[in-house]
Amino acid sequence: MATTGQEEFTLDTASELAAEESGAQIQGRSPWALAGRRLRRNKFALFFLAVFLLILIACIFGRGLYAHHVSGMGENDTNPGGVITVNGQRVHVISQGKTVIKNGIPQIQFGGVPIGPQWGAAGGQYVLGADTLGRDVATRVLYGGYNSLFIGIISAVICTLLSVVFALLAGYFGGAPDWIISRAFDLIWAFPVILLGIALGTALSLNGFHHGPINISGSSLWIPIAVISIVFIPYIGRPLRGQVLALRNREFIEASTAQGAGPLRIMFTELLPNLASSVLVLFTLIVANAILTEAALSFLGAGVQPPNPSWGTMIADGQHQLANAPWISLFPGIMIALTVLSLNVFGDGLRDALDPRAKVRIEH
Amino acid sequence: MAEPLLDVKDLKVRFATEDGIVQAVSGISFNLEPGKVLGIVGESGSGKSVTAMTIMGLTRGVNARFDGEVLYKGTDLLNVSDSGMQEYRGNEIGMIFQDPMTSLNPVYRIGAQIAEAIQAHEEVDKRGARARSVELLRQVGIPNPETRVDDYPHQFSGGMRQRAMIAMALSCNPSILIADEPTTALDVTIQAQIVELIGRLKDDFKSAVIFITHDLGVIAEIADEIIVMYAGRVVEQGTTRDVFYDPQMPYTWGLLGSIPRLDRPRVDRLHTIEGSPPSLINLPQGCKFRPRCPHAFEKCTEEPQLENRVETPGHLDRCWLDVEFKRNHRDETISPGSEEAA
Amino acid sequence: MVAFLIRRFVGMILVLIAVSFIVYLIFIVIPGGDPAQRIAGRVATPANIASIKHELGLDQNIFVQWFKMVKSLLSGTLVSYYNQTNVVQQIKQGIPATFSLCIGAGLIWLFFGVLVGTISAIRAGRVADRFITALALIGISLPVAWLGLVLLYLFADDGLNTWFPPGGYVPLTQDPIQWAYHLILPWLTLAVLFIGFYGRVLRSNILDTINEDFVRTAKAKGLSSQRIIVKHVLRASLIPIVTLFGLDFAAVLGGGAIITETVYNVQGVGWYAAQAIGQQDLPPLMGVTLYGAAFIVVFSTLIDIAYAYLDPRIRLT
Question: Which of C6, C104, C114, C219 has the fewest CB neighbours in a 10 Å radius?
């Protein structure tokens, strides 16, 4: 026994003491909580998420309200001969040709030019202008937006689901399933995205899809959805498969198998949670790309079929009217750019939050 | 006594992270003379690697703050600019790292990477640099160096890669070689060879060595002086003999106890130190080892200073326990089950 | 090394065969309905439909159909029923325009993408980086069709300014200056998206590579920052860019620049495909799809081989 009055602590009391010291322990926080905190600090990402959600809500819930209360026109209501009141004056929706005298010389002003953006001047009508058939651009932007967003988001969901399933099957089982799935990825990958899109899009929109019990007409929105879902599978499927392969050989999978867990259980409870952050980030990117691809396909005529509006078809509508009526193509394009930009900025923020490059590397 | 080669005075290193300020190193001091081997020992997070990297200027960044001095031949390296440090790195001070596979660029040949180090500091043409590379590979024990100099890193075995790294680090005859856990990623048998190689080369090249490891057993043969680090602090410092035969820190006892020994009666379980190292952001009050120390008592709530408490001058420790008490009780930890503990 | 090359080439042939089967599936099998009717297009006459049925062997089994489809495409017997032109011929005619557009744009986007990515990585976190990142994000968010139309509106005849021609293509052999002059806006339009994307990818690669152990070793050897960046960091970071560029370049050469060609009326391979969509004319689409995929498959194989040169670890497998 010591002679200087020191008391000897046993191992037990020492660890109790340690437990009481809040400062002495390294505090564990779940990775999701940490990610959430990082995301909350990223003002840009949050701002653009809000912008995207705003656009989404406007197109989903706002379109009917707008058509009913503001513009008074549906998305396909034409009005070529219409006349509206702007600031008290009567103006033709599509200009009538007339002759004017300038400097004593008669000049012909051609008709057929749709009215431009009125903003508030016409009492809610033609806020963003009219197109060549007299349709209200603003209403069509909302309805077209609904279609574009619907296609973009649903395709991304389907694509992600399929990719995750394929990646799990290929990565976990290896062997023949992996070979088949990887070759399928390779084959889809072998086509330029847009060419594959128009090939499938055109072939399917001509006749629709009629096999067995499934009958989808050529003008259904599900055609572009199916096309875009398929085309992007390798873009998510391959990176995920790589991750599954890497995780597959880690000890916690061995441990789980040793405990008697079957393949399905392992895939769901062990592999999937580890893929979650990649899936989230990839999903955001695919939504952005799906919207751009739908716009491209619809612009070319291989996507959304008339009379359904989409942002892409609207750009096509206005492409020959640039000189006279640039607003027909301008506004849908701005909406696409804004929506996709918001998704990209938020996606970046999400990626940084989930997997930050450590600002400091502490070597031990 | 001549001016020491390297004189580290009260070095402190802090990093700003999103979780707070990390006190990575809180005041380490030592010096190094030519030909001397200093061993720095500690767990992950003890600050040993940060110390080494700071000497080389590799920890500089927007979020790093340094205090104290690192005097190399009289010049404070902490005040040298980053481009100024290029003169010292590789040339005056060489460094090798833990994992030789990832530390070598996979797309360049070994010989090219060694020659690159030489040509960065000396006026040598390609042929001369290549010839020197071959010689260096021979010196570190690579067989057939004339052919192997053109191999890629993946064509070398783990031990050979580490030898090549050593060759690269010594290529410009630096006065100091810093080895940061050079054997941790290697097989036990290769470990011994590498340690022996370093010992031999330091004499051939007349360099001083700083050998960093978490395993006291690895440096027992080669080190002249040992520094034990914990939570960014030096907790024990002295000659190898002092630290091994008269260890004064319970933490050091834990480290010694966890080395399997052939010359002691076999024990059922190797000693492990309970608990985990403290967070470097929220360090506990008082002695940093207290939560894990089996002998902690109430005085330990006040942090001990690093002082010489034993008869041998130069043997420093940070522990309040009475020296006699320590000498009587440490064998419970170092070699439980042996006669000394009974 | 030779074995490696042979393996890659054999693989390439197999993939091309599989790709042709997919084209067959897409156009003949998947949609259902009557393929002959579909292919005959809008101006279908019973005689056309009957001859298509015979040409493609639609009354025979899958493999005969597939074989006949490929044969008729490659030998040029499959024609566009809309305007009675030979598909293969039309594709060939479109090649100079497409190549002019894509090679020019490709060089621009590769150069600027690498430049922008490197600058933004070296100045990471500072003003230049934030600015470049913002521009890059905008660049990858713009729909190509819309960007083309906006540039036309702003800078071309019929628009606000009249600095550039409103589209069209002038062959290089006819007038090199006009050739370039007509291609400037299309080059820019096609390149913007890729510059943004490549810049971001490279920036990310560089920032990852800077933390690699071998870069730490390079620093510890006392190499100059310039040497470290060029010989160690860029060398490693550019390898994935090589793959990306190879595939993207192949895709646009193979008709993937369809939107840019349409907006600017550059009558290349992509333009040809776009016209066919409007006319509901399938044979040109079949031809261009096969053509585009062939480009990617061939380039993909070339990239694999280039990779072996760039990364010695692969050579031995």
Answer: C6
Shortest Cα–Cα distance, C216 to chain B (Å): 7
What is the largest distance, in Å, between two alpha-carbon atoms of chain B? 67
Please state, in angstroms and rounded to a whole number, the distance separating the CA atoms of residues A243 and A248.
8
Average pLDDT, chain C: 86
The DSSP annotation for C159-224 comes to SS--SB--S----TTT-HHHHHHHHHHHHHHHHHHHHHHHHHHHHHHHHHHHTSHHHHHHHHTT--
pLDDT in tens, A266-296: 788 878 888 888 899 999 999 999 999 999 9
Q: What is the mean pLDDT of residues B62-78?
A: 91
Best B77, B103, B136 member to test C by mutation, with max C CBs in 10 Å, is B103
Give the tens place of pLDDT for each residue, B153-193.
999 998 899 999 999 999 999 999 999 999 888 888 888 89
Whole-angstrom Cα distance, residue C288 to residue A239? 29
Q: Measure C138 CA to nearest chain A CA, in Å.
A: 6
Which residues in chain C have their CB less than 8 angstroms from residue A318's CB?
A: 149
List the one residue out of C315, C297, C292 whose CA is nearest residue C305. C315
What's the whole-number mean pLDDT along residues C39-45? 73
Residues of C in contact with A199 (CB under 8 A): 23, 26-27, 285-286, 289
Check pLDDT > 80 for residue A119: yes
A210 touches C at CB < 8 Å: yes
The pLDDT score that the predictor gives to residue B338 is 56
Q: A195–C142: do the CB atoms touch at under 8 Å?
A: no
The answer to whether C54 contacts chain B (CB < 8 Å) is no
> Which residues in chain A are contacts of B18 at CB distance < 8 A?
38, 359
A31 contacts on B by Cβ (under 8 Å): none
Residue C235 corresponds to which amino acid? Answer: R
Q: Which residues are CB-contacts of B184 (< 8 A; sequence separation ≥ 6)? A: B98, B213, B214, B215
Q: Which pLDDT tens digit goes with each residue over B314-338?
A: 899 888 888 888 888 888 778 766 5
Closest C-alpha to B231, from B321, B334, B303: B303
Burial C205-222 (b: 16+ CB within 10 A, else e): bbbebbebbbbbbbbbbb
Bridge partner residues of B238 (DSSP) = B226
SS3 A139: helix
pLDDT tens track for C89-147: 888 889 999 999 999 999 999 999 999 999 999 888 889 999 999 999 999 999 999 99
